[in-house]
Specification:
Rossmann fold, 2 domains, 6-stranded parallel beta sheet
Length: 386
């Protein structure tokens, strides 16, 4: 736009694939495009879901061709210079970084670019909370502290992330702000129509009395899907005549291991791997429960979406999940890495329709009251300005 006097806001994220962090970036970019000159930079494939959605919204994008999720020294050095060039050309007033890797590289590039932008970083769950060897954990904590020195403000998506940052001395309290994730306008298909669509996508004719579990997201080790598959196996002998299916959405590096586990347990007919499906949330009402078996989380969008759709939630008690799921009231919480507890919680919902309706209704009410999209936008913009 010629003569556009609006400030420039540049979002940077590692990958443009389907996921919570990508939804976060898209929602913020779309909303703030009314007030700022917004653009989004990401690595990964040019046909990634995020790039496609931004194109529809006519939001400018930049492809960082050497940027990937994994650490590759040679490529990562090239990414640093890609970012340096991008920042010097675009001259953003605000750079909003997303993901631990880009949080460090983007902060350093922003600092050395000479542009002097305000650098904001959103921690979508700290990387040092992953299951890694002690030495690796110490390195990731040191890198997070280093990155924080070059970041002006850090947004934590949960109180848990905030306290972890303080506990590990990542940054002084004055740099840390809690802004919960929230869901904007979301349309859900009615249950009957949603189940028809899921049957079509899965190539199965699901009956109304079939019990359908769903797990959406990226297929990373931290999603604990091995525990979920084991829990599903434990359910088989306890549900009598009721047919139960587990539908897993998403793609990622754990796909091969997941397929192998499912095959070894001979569960291919009941556990269905759907891959990446754009706007998967519209089908949520087809399912009887959402199950998260993660070993690490920030503040999952999938719980917010399931709650608004009226779907009961079973989740491992990790990250910021307990800040929205109150056990027995707005959902069921289980200990992480415990397939037996996960199976027992699923059985409770499968066997007690009143409980399922009670907790899903309470969750929906809780989200409407405490996790409002307008509040998320207002708090995020306030962080930009302070």
């Amino acid at each position: 736009m010629i003569g556009d006097s609006r400030k420039k806001l540049l979002f940077v994220i590692t990958q443009p694939v389907v996921g919570g962090a990508q939804k976060y970036v898209f929602d913020l970019a779309r909303h703030f495009s009314l007030k700022y000159q917004v653009s989004v930079a990401a690595g990964g494939q040019l046909d990634g879901d995020l790039f496609k959605k931004l194109e529809v919204e006519k939001i400018k994008t930049h492809h960082l061709k050497f940027l990937g999720r994994e650490v590759k020294i040679g490529d990562d050095i090239l990414v640093f210079f890609e970012l340096l060039k991008l920042f010097r050309e675009e001259k953003p007033d605000i750079i909003h970084l997303n993901s631990s890797k880009i949080g460090l590289m983007g902060a350093l590039a922003g600092y050395f670019s000479g542009v002097r932008p305000k650098i904001i970083f959103t921690a979508h769950g700290w990387i040092f909370k992953e299951e890694v060897p002690r030495r690796t954990k110490r390195v990731t904590i040191w890198l997070a502290r280093l990155a924080a020195k070059f970041q002006d403000r850090i947004i934590c998506v949960s109180q848990n992330d905030f306290y972890e940052a303080l506990k590990h001395r990542i940054a002084p309290p004055r740099k840390l702000y809690v802004v919960y994730n929230a869901v904007g306008e979301t349309e859900f298909l009615p249950r009957v129509k949603a189940r028809v669509q899921i049957s079509r996508l899965a190539g199965r004719d699901f009956a109304e009395d079939n019990f359908l579990l769903v797990n959406p997201g990226r297929l990373y080790a931290t999603k604990g899907l091995n525990y979920l598959v084991e829990a599903f196996r434990n359910l088989q002998s306890k549900l009598g005549e009721k047919k139960i299916y587990l539908v897993i959405f998403g793609d990622g590096p754990e796909l091969k291991n997941l397929k192998s586990q499912i095959s070894n347990l001979k569960l291919e007919d009941q556990i269905l791997l759907m891959g990446d499906v754009s706007e998967m949330s519209q089908y949520l009402r087809a399912f009887d429960a959402l199950v998260l078996s993660s070993t690490k989380e920030g503040f999952p969008y999938s719980i917010l979406e399931a709650g608004l759709a009226g779907v009961p939630v079973v989740a491992a008690d990790v990250g910021g999940i307990k800040e929205i799921i109150i056990d027995g009231t707005t959902g069921l919480l289980v200990k992480p890495r415990n397939s037996t507890a996960l199976a027992e919680a699923i059985l409770k919902i499968a066997g007690d329709r009143n409980l399922a309706q009670k907790i899903s209704g309470s969750l929906k009410k809780n989200i409407a009251q405490d996790f409002d999209f307008k509040t998320m936008i207002q708090k995020t913009e306030w962080v930009y300005k302070v």
